Amino acid sequence: xxxxxxxxxxxxxxxxxxxxxxxxxxxxxxxxxxxxxxxxxxxxxxxxxxxxxxxxxxxxxxxxxxxxxxxxxxxxxxxxxxxxxxxxxxxxxxxxxxxxxxxxxxxxxxxxxxxxxxxxxxxxxxxxxxxxxxxxxxxxxxxxxxxxxxxxxxxxxxxxxxxxxxxxxxxxxxxxxxxxxxxxxxxxxxxxxxxxxxxxxxxxxxxxxxxxxxxxxxxxxxxxxxxxxxxxxxxx
Length: 236
Description:
Layout: H1 12-23, H2 32-49, E1 64-67, H3 74-82, H4 123-136, E2 144-149, H5 156-168, E3 173-179, H6 191-197, E4 201-206, H7 210-218, E5 226-231
Parallel strand pairs: 1-2, 2-3, 3-5, 4-5
């Protein structure tokens, strides 16, 4: 486990810009706190970890990022706009009738989105299937990342995917769990222990500490899938 005792190392300049981009998205059903809780983790992934750009969104060798926690997509949209996947002018149209940026991302409409989000518990099984599909094509270099919420672990589909991936040795699979203490049936010994028991490589980090996030995201884990439990303020 990673214990952070010093003040979190946060990229405040980037966060200020991203918060400004998020402020362009108005209207009902924004799920602002849910979006805010994911912003730092998604930014560190796209800024420093993921091997995908607007020019490689269809390249077979790209990394895949699957947003399973899709009911607060504003952070995801802000990061995609900041990285150039689509124009920032689209953000002001968020949630409108003819906007591609809906209250849940649609992979057919949002440039850079790998899956459509909506049903709790579907992201991790899709990520497992994505890794198996890549392996079947002989593509062992691309990494698959999925971001889920702690409450999604209440879903049986996630339990089955979690239990399968460890023994199967799905090294290409990476799961980021946003832990804001909202799960109804959490394990008494915590989320990390649940993944460890299934044979995953696991770390827990402060959700606002970008250096800790980067270190956890890039730690080697030969022969095992990787889970990073990201702790954020319970109000988020």
